[in-house]
Design a protein that fits this description.
single chain, 107 residues, alpha+beta, Hypothetical Protein Aq_1857, Chain: A, three-stranded mixed β-sheet, 9 strands, 46% strand
Length: 107
């Protein structure tokens, strides 16, 4: 099982953690919602819970709860800028389809 970060995503997380002055990494999860069934939930990881799985890529910790892990296993998290827009993008090999905005997916 693994979660990976692109160079751009790792740099972005490091930058924001440094600017905030606290946090241990990126927390990635999913919730049942969105136009395609599930939506990614991204936040700062402040701690590690007993049921969390921790990955480290490019010096950045990625924390995933055990319930979300089967749905995001193998995902690469990227960070892209397009004009004035910037966002994390997810390359999830388990997703059968995604909505047009890329923030929700179906398994």
């Amino acid at each position: 099982m693994s979660i990976t970060l692109s160079v751009a995503a790792a740099n972005r997380v490091r930058h924001f953690l440094s600017a905030r002055g606290h946090g241990i990494g990126l927390r990635l999860g999913v919730k049942k919602t969105g136009c395609s069934g599930y939506a990614y939930v991204v936040n700062y990881a402040e701690d590690i819970q007993p049921d969390d799985v921790v990955f480290e890529d490019q010096g950045v910790k990625v924390v995933v709860d055990a319930d979300s892990l089967p749905m995001v296993d193998g995902t690469e998290v990227d960070f892209v800028k397009q004009g004035l827009n910037e966002a994390f993008k997810f390359h999830n090999p388990k997703a059968k389809s995604e909505c047009g905005c890329g923030e929700s997916f179906n398994l």
